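W.,

You were right to be curious about this one. When I first looked at the sequence I had no strong expectations either way, so I just let the prediction run and decided to look at it fresh. Below is the sequence, 217 residues in total, followed by the output.
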Amino acid sequence: MKSIFIALGASFGLLCSGMSYAALVDDISLLQQSWAKVNYELKDEAQEKAFKALIKDSQRVVERYPEKAESHIWHGIIQSSYAGAKGGLGALGLAKLAKTEFEQALAIDREALNGSALTSLGTLYSKVPGWPIGFGSDTKARELFEQSLAINPRGLDINYFYAQFLYDEREYSKALIHLKQAQAAPKRSGREKADQYRQAEVTELLARVEKKLKRKK
């Protein structure tokens, strides 16, 4: 009889765990869809206001799932996106908060969401000013991008952001390789809008890279 209760308890635990993960997936999906709209379709004051509200939403997701890397990743992505939209001194504070979220995600599971914490943290290091103003570091950015590529070599975001970094470093031939990889990246279910806008960014950067390469010939 005791073994039956143990088996039932284990089954109930697995069921609850499955339900919790399904709820997390739903919450992350809502954040992803909202982020795509705010990041790509809103501008100026409307965008800033929407980002402020979305940060509150992602903070609640972190509070619901503090032990899940995915919640920290998306809270950080929204904070860093808002930093990019906001600009100025206020942006650095948001970037530092995002850095903390990505580092927490890495401490939990560095491969979560196909290495997205590594990609996002690498992007922060590549964009934020270096010492003494900020924590930016091209060396650290490259290291993080390459770690993310090892996890998800065909990914759209990692190949795009690494290509963007390589473009800034004037490594145009290498950037071209990753932009071609980004163009061929598998489509992501539920991320159709984000994929559409990201591919437009890939196309725009590809044109700039090809222009640079033609000038070098």
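Here's what jumped out at me. Residues 2-41 form the longest helix (40 residues). And, maybe more interesting for your project: Confidence is low (pLDDT under 50) at residues 11-17.

Coffee later to discuss?

I.
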